[in-house]
């Protein structure tokens, strides 16, 4: 009799308490540490949970390579990454595309001193041109491609050097280099850091492919569908959550783009080839 009562109570409790929502782990390749990830994407985590009914868990990764390993081992389900990282992830983990995250004014530029001797791209031949971190879409690959598109071959018609942004600006002002490759937002920050110096843009690349949210290749179809539908039907709410992060202001004014395919990132593959990388089996460092 007692066992019958206990069993009945158990069935009653099970019918009252809802099933636990499926946990979906979300990572971002350019943010290290859980605290920083929560500061930037805590608002997005809450918004995505609300519109999907899924339990979204932020999962910090220490590097792009770590993100690939975590995807392949099933530790994470969703990864937000940049276009340069995506083409390598595609080879190493075969992820499924969820949605592209547009960044307005996301393009590369070649900047020089307004009162300097460099007046045209032709003047850069034989000179030093600095780029940002190796493999960066907008600070290295994009500017290098912009010069290639204009007829200047990478590290052949000019000498390519790698310098951090403010160090490069100081080198440009001193005359140690002739030009800087950087993106639109970074040039704005350089102008703010050096308010007494005038800079001119000699070349501008095309808009760069967007950041992209991908899912591990064996994610459950129903989970993937829920997330995709969320971006279609609740993009505004999700973007409001994203923009609660300070560094995420780069997405302000942008949209979540669902009509995206792998071939949209062939331009990034051409950038890699421009700097001499013909395979995409490893991250460039």
TrEMBL record:
Residues 1-21 form the signal peptide. It comes from the Bacteria. Keywords: Signal. Pfam families: Phosphonate-bd. Gene3D superfamilies: Periplasmic binding protein-like II (3.40.190.10). The keyword Signal applies. It is found in: Periplasm. Its main location: periplasm. The keyword Membrane does not apply. Belongs to the bacterial solute-binding protein SsuA/TauA family. This is Phosphonate transport system substrate-binding protein. It comes from Sinorhizobium kostiense.
